[in-house]
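Holo prediction. Input below; ligand is fe (ii) ion.
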Amino acid sequence: MTWILGLNAYHADSSACLLRDGELLAAAEEERFRRVKHWAGLPVEAVRYCLAEAGIGLEEVDHVAINRDPKAHLFQKALFAFKRRPSLGLIRDRLANAAKVGSPLDELAAALSVPRDRVRARLHPVEHHLAHLASAFLVSPFEEAALVSVDGFGDFLSAMWGVGHGSRIEVRGRVFFPHSLGLFYQAITQYLGFWSYGDEYKVMGFAPYGRPTRLPEMERLVQLHPDGSYTLGLDYFRHHAEGVEMVWQGGYPEVGRIFTPALEELLGPARKKDEALDERHADIAASAQAMYERALFHLLDIVQRETGLDRLCLAGGCAMNSVANGKVYRRTRFRELYLPAAAGDAGGAIGAAFVVWHAVSQAPRRFVMDRASWGPGWSDADLARFVERQRPAIESEGCTIETAPDDRALVEKVAAAIAEGAVVGWFQGRMEWGPRALGNRSILADPRRADMKDVLNLKIKRRESFRPFAPAILRERVADWFEEEDDVPFMMQVFQVRPERRGQVPATTHVDGSGRLQTVTRAANPRYYDLIAAFERRTSVPILLNTSFNENEPIVCRPEEALDCFLRTKMDLLVLGRTIVRRAG
Ligand SMILES: [Fe+2]
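Structure of the complex:
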C-alpha cells in the first residue's frame, strides 16, 4: 500500500490531502480548522485530519508532495536579478520564503509529536503550475486534454500550458515573472478599494454594473502576444522593482500595494476603502473583467489551435473567475471543460500528490473527482447525539428540536419551510473541498423571493449588496432554465438564465441576467437532490438559493460551529443530518 500526503504549505489557502494507492481519501483546507480565512502556513490541522480519516500515523506515509519547487527556473531568476537589479529587500524576502521549504517533514513531525527518525516519507517538491495543471487533468474524466493554468505567481511563473495524455503532462508554454494576469486583476481589485486577500471575486461580481469603457487604458496594462502569452505595462506595477510586502506565515495572508501612482494618473484616483462605489468604479471593474477575458481567450484560442484538442482542463487562481469560465464554449472552440473544485492554490495539494503517485507507481489513471465531499464528516446518529447534548442551550434560546423519521419526511418538511420563506442552515455529511459550499455546509433559501438577498444580508451575511447569490439546480433541468448546458458540479461557471425565467428566480439572477449555478445529481448528493426535487414539487422551481454556511468567517466545519452560527444569526432552521432545530416565532 502506498500513502501519499499532498500539501499546499507556506502559502495562502494552505491545505492537505491524502491518497491511498492513487485514490483520494481526504482533503481539506487549513482555514476550516484554524477558523482564519485563507490561513497561510503549514497545514498541520488538515494533515492531522487526513491521517485520522485514514486511521494512520505520519510514520506510515511513504511520500509527501508539496506544490512548490524553489529550484525551478533558477536560470530565469538569476537572469531577472541581473537585468533588472531588483531591490535587496525583494531578493531577501524571496530567499526567506524559499528557505521555509525543505523543512516541512521536520515541522510536521514536531507538530504531530512523532519522533523525526520514525518519519520515513520522502519529500517531493512539485513545480507550482505543474501541480495546478495536474490538480485538474489527473482527476478529470479526460484521457487527453489541453491544459492551462493561470494565476498570480508560483515558482516564478504566472501561467503554464500544455497537453495531458494518460498520466503524462507535456508542458508547451509559460509566462514568467514579472508578467501576470492574476497580478493585473489583483492590482485593479486593490485600486477599487478591496484590500483583503482573495477579494478579486468582488470585482467580478461588481463588473456587470458597469460598461467596459476603459478598455483602451487596460490595454496599456496588459499586452497580448502572438504565442498566447502576455506582458504587463510594468510602469503601473511595483512588484517587479520594489517588491510587494507579503505576510504569509502562520495566519491571515496580507499583500501590500501592487500598483504605482502611474495607475492613478491613468485611471483617476483610487477608491478609498469606505468611499461609495460609483459608475466610474463600475466601468473600471467591467473593463478589467473584459481585459482578463480577452487575454484568457487569446491564450485558450492559441492552445486550442496548436493542440487540436477540444477538451480543456483549467486551473490556477484565475480559474476561479467563473464568469470567464462560463464563456469558454461561446468564445473558444473547446467543447468540454473540467474545472476542479479547488482551482486555486489549495488544489495544488491534490495536483502535487497525483504527480508523485503517477511518478512512483507508473499506474494508469483510475480516480475521477466528481464530488467535493472530502472533508470531516458526521453521521446522522453523531449529529442527533450532538443536538441532544446541546438541548439545554438550544431550548434556552427558545428553539425547538425534532428529528425526521426518514429522508422523505425530512426533505418535505425542509422544502415546505423554505417555500414559506425560511432561511435554512443545512449541515450534512462531509465538508466540501474547495472554496464553495455545495450542499453539505450550505445556507439555503427560496430563490423566488426578490427580497431574499436583502433578508440574507440583514440576517446573516452582511456583505456588499452588489454581490449575487447562487442557484443550485437539478442537473436535468439546466437546459430549461439556462442558455447553456453542462455539468457544473463545483459552481465554477456562470451561465445566462433564460430571459423568460429570470423573473421567476430574482434572488439568484444577477443584474446582467446571469447565475453562478451548481448542477446537482442524485448520484453525487442524494439528500440535497431530493430536497431540491421536493421544493420543485411544491413550487415548480427546481432551484434553491445556496450560499456558504458562515458569517464573516471560514465555512463551518464542525456541528459546534454550525450551531454557534445559527444561534448568533437570525437563521430560521438548522438541519443537522435528520435533526431539525427550529427558531420559535
Ligand atoms: Fe497558484
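The longest strand covers residues 144-154. That is the main takeaway for now.
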